[in-house]
Amino acid sequence: MSWKINWFWGTPPATKYSEPFEDPWREMILSDKQRQRVFKELKEFQISTSTVRHLRILLHGPTHSGKSSFINSVNTVLQGRNTTVALANSAGGFSFTRKFQTYKLKKDRSGSFFPFVFNDIMGLDENDSRGVQTDDIISVLGGHVPEGYTFNPMSALTKQHMEYNSAPSLDDKVHCLVSVLPGDVISLMPQGILEKMKKVRQKAIDLGIPQVIIITKVDSACKLVSKDLKMIYKSRKIKEKMQECSNLLDVPMHCIFPVKNYCEEITTNTNVDIVILTAMNNIVHFANDFVERQ
Ligand SMILES: Nc1nc2c(ncn2[C@@H]2O[C@H](COP(=O)(O)OP(=O)(O)OP(=O)(O)O)[C@@H](O)[C@H]2O)c(=O)[nH]1
Ligand SMILES: [Mg+2]
């Protein structure tokens, strides 16, 4: 039957890959009012149990994927000004972040902090001698790595080391694992890195830790989005990247959030804020659900 329809109407021209979808495939309101709503949600978020002081969010992923920039971006949104808490770097080569560090974000001038913290770690590299060891990330998940520990790409921290925390509290453990992937080069991700990420993911599944993927650099990944971030959920390219991540790491689409980090800007922008805040609100709720179950 279909050939008759085609014959009658003519074969419709193939949709151009660069053309956006007419309707956004994920509902995302981008307006000042929405920014206020998601901002308020994160600002007022509280942990629903007293078993932990804060929710611990671990960012991991390939080197230069934008892990440190994401922490800075969340802080920039919350402070409403250009900030750098975690040092990010533009040079290639080795992972810039070497130390295991916890970042608390200031809530207001009274010295209080948000009820979540970020752990920034060394990036994963295909070359075993250049990036963080998979076993070290697994140790971080379980709360065994002490603050300030300098990762050694040549050997992982083990129970035999003095620094190894063999009796971690629930506070020390990770409550949400965030895999940070660079949107512009996902398709080129070396198999070796993906295998390492899958191993970490499997351990997180075993421990019941929720998982989220943040896709950074959507501005570099898609011209439409680079010109106007409002196109983020109309872009075929971004949807394809998300699907690719979902397939590669076996994470459902509703746990994947594309963002553009603050890198060059010195002022904040409503749409950039909304995509970052939306991702963060989901992360803290997933982490809170996990802590509630412990
Ligand atoms: N265009 C664009 N550049 C980004 C984005 N996020 C990060 N970058 C850039 O990517 C580079 C690496 O960012 P980092 O935040 O240092 O990445 P990282 O994952 O912490 O890297 P390592 O600590 O070295 O493993 C920097 O030059 C950032 O400015 C983004 O959303 N868009
Ligand atoms: Mg870093």
Fold and architecture overview:
The protein is α/β, with parallel strands linked by helices and 294 residues long. The chain has one domain (29-293): Rossmann fold, CATH 3.40.50.300. Helices cover 36% and strands 12% of the residues. The chain has a six-stranded mixed sheet, with helices on both faces. Helix 5 links the parallel strand 4 and strand 5. Helix 2 (32-43) runs parallel beside helix 9, helix 3 (67-79) crosses helix 9 and helix 4 packs parallel to helix 5 (191-207). 40% of the residues are buried. The model is unreliable at 1-7 (pLDDT under 50). Bound molecules: guanosine-5'-triphosphate and magnesium ion. Residues 67-68, 88, 96-97, 120 line the site of magnesium ion (MG).
The CATH superfamily title? P-loop containing nucleotide triphosphate hydrolases
Q: How many discrete structural domains? A: 1
Q: Which strand order spans the largest sheet, edge to edge or round the barrel? A: 2-3-1-4-5-6
Strand content: 5-15%
Named CATH topology: Rossmann fold
Q: How far from one another are the termini?
A: 57 Å
Main beta sheet: strand number and arrangement? Answer: 6 strands, mixed
pLDDT averaged residue by residue: 90
Helix-strand category: alpha/beta
Summarize this, please?
This protein is of the alpha/beta class. The chain has helices spanning 2-9, 32-43, 67-79, 134-141, 191-207, 218-221, 223-227, 236-249, 270-293, and strands spanning 55-60, 101-106, 113-120, 176-182, 211-216, 256-258.
